[in-house]
Amino acid sequence: MTAEAGPREESGPLPSAWGPPRVPRDAADEQRSAASFELMAAVMDGAHLPDLLELVATQARALAHVPLAFIALPVEDGHMLRIEIAVGAEGERIRGLTVRRGRSMLGRAFASRRALSARIVDDQTLTRLPSGPILILPLETGETTRGVLAVLGRPGAQPFGPGTARQLLLFADMAARLVELAEERRAVRAGSAGGAQALGDLRPPWRARG
Question: If you count DSSP H runs as helices and E runs as strands, how many of each does the chain have, helices first?
Fold first, then answer.
């Protein structure tokens, strides 16, 4: 059984499996703000798309206190999502994995533009991963969803609480907008008149394939 986690839910104590229990709301807000400012600084410094996406996954992993975070992006045909960025334990096992949008939790979060909290055992498309809790967040710019960011907990850990979901959803929202801004700046510097179109679906160019 899966459950959707919306961005407006009230904060609660972080599960002890993710780190120090009962992290105060203000401390969690500060951690998220610091992560967002670090990403903003990378954008202003002109970091390339692959580096930005890896930084997003790295920060999300730290915010959630989990062993693995990854980013899945649409492929050219529009019917699949491919895991392009994976940071942490088991990352090599899943990097490059593709799943159908209509038959996976990743696709459900992508299509609905809502965070999804579940367990790996509920999705046969992610059997390469340990059977822990997973939180999947849309990378949404306000106009469209560019991909999904996911954090995966240790096997046997409790599901992600609403406080953790809220912090990560806010971070994912900011991250998607900052990455889009970085691509617009890059397009302008390259002399392109279609900066917004250069965004495509945030597919890292070094991983793109037909």
Answer: 5, 7
Mean pLDDT over each residue of the chain, to the nearest integer? 78
Residue 150 in this model has a pLDDT that exceeds 90: yes
H or E stretch covering 92: helix 91-94
Could you tell me if 145 and 138 are in contact, meaning their C-beta atoms sit under 8 angstroms apart?
yes
Which DSSP state fits 37? H
pLDDT at residue 139, rounded to an integer: 93
Of 130, 89, 124, 93, give the one whose Cα is nearest residue 106: 124
| Rounded CA separation 131/119 (Å) | 7
Comparing 21-35, 116-130, 138-152, 187-201, which segment has the lowest mean pLDDT?
187-201
What DSSP line would sit under 141-206, residue for residue?
A: -SS-EEEEEEEE--TTPPPPPHHHHHHHHHHHHHHHHHHHHHHHHHHHHTT-S-TTGGGTT---TT
In whole angstroms, give the CA distance from residue 3 to residue 109. 11
Task: Decide: pTM greater than 0.90.
Answer: no
CB atoms within 10 A of CB 159: 18
